[in-house]
């Protein structure tokens, strides 16, 4: 524990986090957790601190902060909406998952998490998990949480797994019996403007049994099932139009699956923006970003001052897919959406030692590179179509 300086720093951090993520509640409290605390409700001093993180969270209200003192904590934590969690440092605070089927830490809306190490169960389980429903307004950009200066390791499943899903609700297109597909698309474009933006900074995700980090947006095609065709009617449930994952100064390494994954639905765009990140030695692709057709935006990867190295498959795989399938060597089946894009923009980065360099779409089928790959050299040449290298 760093005493007064630690508390002062987290007071400042907490004020910033609440300002950015949600309106602060009047009289918001700081609740403490310590393995040596007296466990006296409402846990408002370091001496009366709760001995369990979840106990302090359960006592919290919207806008409160939970400050965790050094030590090991064997539990599973589910944060409330608008409650922030600050540890004294990822080298000092470790939460160990004890049940294989549960995430170690579950986020909701308007959470800020900082200064923790998450260790997953050795058999199964997710390190940090979030399942986000679209807010009722269904418009605007939503930044539901921020993860900073954390370590996630040794999970049986993915290190960080985030789903953006649709809450129950329906939108009806006017005059569905007479509207054309073009009318439907214009109507949907005019009302569908919801984006999710996830920020993860200064984190290390290592040795996980699935992907390192995954952000997945529910496929809307199954939800609206053919609206615009009068014989099928026009009931639709909307999800997120665009999913963006922003990684800054993060390391994702030695995971059984892909390093970083962003997947969006049939009408949605998938974006990954990486700055000063290291993605290395993962058993799948280093980066996998895909949109299932993406009428608005396709799939995009931006990497600045990054190192993507030693991944068993391609360094960066960025494309849009459809219902068509193509056989590729090794038994993988993919579909390519000819009208959508898969853009890879690499600036001042090193791509080396991967089975394939950079892959973007559209590209001709036939191999993982599909004629659209760079060499695995440290200096990345710039292909002609779908990719940009600077």
Largest sheet: 12 strands, parallel
Q: Which structural class fits the helix and strand makeup?
A: mainly beta
Q: Radius of gyration over alpha carbons?
A: 22 Å
End-to-end C-alpha gap: 44 Å
Helical residue percent? Answer: 10-25%
Instruction: Detail the poorly predicted runs.
Output: 1-24, 220-235, 323-337, 362-390
Total number of β-strand segments?
34
pLDDT average, as an integer? Answer: 76
Gross morphology: globular
Portion of residues in beta strands equals 35-45%
Quickly count the helices: 4
Describe what you observe in this structure.
The structure is a single chain. The chain has 390 residues and is mostly beta strands. It has a domain at 126-389. It has four helices and 34 strands. The chain has helices spanning 3-21, 53-59, 181-191, 221-224, and strands spanning 30-33, 65-68, 71-74, 77-78, 84-87, 93-96, 105-107, 111-114, 117-119, 128-133, 139-142, 145-148, 151-153, 160-165, 171-172, 193-201, 204-206, 213-217, 235-236, 242-248, 251-253, 260-264, 269-275, 278-280, 287-291, 299-304, 307-309, 314-320, 326-327, 333-334, 342-347, 350-352, 356-360, 387-389. The strands form five sheets. Strands 1, 2, 5, 8, 11, 12, 16, 20, 23, 26, 31 and 34 form a twelve-stranded parallel beta sheet that branches. A nine-stranded parallel beta sheet has the order 3-6-9-13-17-21-24-27-32, with no helix packed on it. The chain starts with a helix and ends with a strand. Mean pLDDT is 76; it is low at 1-24, 220-235, 323-337 and 362-390.
């Amino acid at each position: 524990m760093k005493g007064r300086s630690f508390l002062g720093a987290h007071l400042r951090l907490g004020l910033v986090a609440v300002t950015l993520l949600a309106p602060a509640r009047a009289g918001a409290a700081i609740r403490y957790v310590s393995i040596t605390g007296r466990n006296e409700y409402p846990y408002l001093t370091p001496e009366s601190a709760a001995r369990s993180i979840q106990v302090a969270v359960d006592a919290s209200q919207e806008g409160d902060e939970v400050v965790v003192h050094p030590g090991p904590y064997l539990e599973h934590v589910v944060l409330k909406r608008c409650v922030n969690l600050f540890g004294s440092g990822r080298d000092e605070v470790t939460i160990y998952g004890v049940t294989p089927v549960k995430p170690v830490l579950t986020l909701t809306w308007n959470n800020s998490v900082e200064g923790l190490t998450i260790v997953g169960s050795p058999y199964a389980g997710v390190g940090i998990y979030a399942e986000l429903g679209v807010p009722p307004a269904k418009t605007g950009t939503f930044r539901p949480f921020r993860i900073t200066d954390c370590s996630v390791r040794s999970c049986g499943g993915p290190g960080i797994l985030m789903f953006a899903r649709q809450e129950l609700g329906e939108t009806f297109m006017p005059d569905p019996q007479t509207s054309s597909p073009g009318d439907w698309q214009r109507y949907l474009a005019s009302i569908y403007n919801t984006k999710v933006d996830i920020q993860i900074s200064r984190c290390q995700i290592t040795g996980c049994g699935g992907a390192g980090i995954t952000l997945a947006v529910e496929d809307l095609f199954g939800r609206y099932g053919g609206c615009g065709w009068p014989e099928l009617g026009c009931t639709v449930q909307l999800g997120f139009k665009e999913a963006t994952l922003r990684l800054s100064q993060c390391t994702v390494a030695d995971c059984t699956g892909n390093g970083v994954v962003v997947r969006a639905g049939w009408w949605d765009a998938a974006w990954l923006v990486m700055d000063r990140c290291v993605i290395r030695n993962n058993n799948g692709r280093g980066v996998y970003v895909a949109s299932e057709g993406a009428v608005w935006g396709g799939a995009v990867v931006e990497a600045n001052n990054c190192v993507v190295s030693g991944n068993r498959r391609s360094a960066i795989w960025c494309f849009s897919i459809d219902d068509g399938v193509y056989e590729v060597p090794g038994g993988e089946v993919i579909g390519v959406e000819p009208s959508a894009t898969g853009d890879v923009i690499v600036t001042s980065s090193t791509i080396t030692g991967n089975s394939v360099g950079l892959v973007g779409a559209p590209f001709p089928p036939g191999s993982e590179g599909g004629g659209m790959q760079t060499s695995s050299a440290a200096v990345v040449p710039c292909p002609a179509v779908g990719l940009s290298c600077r």
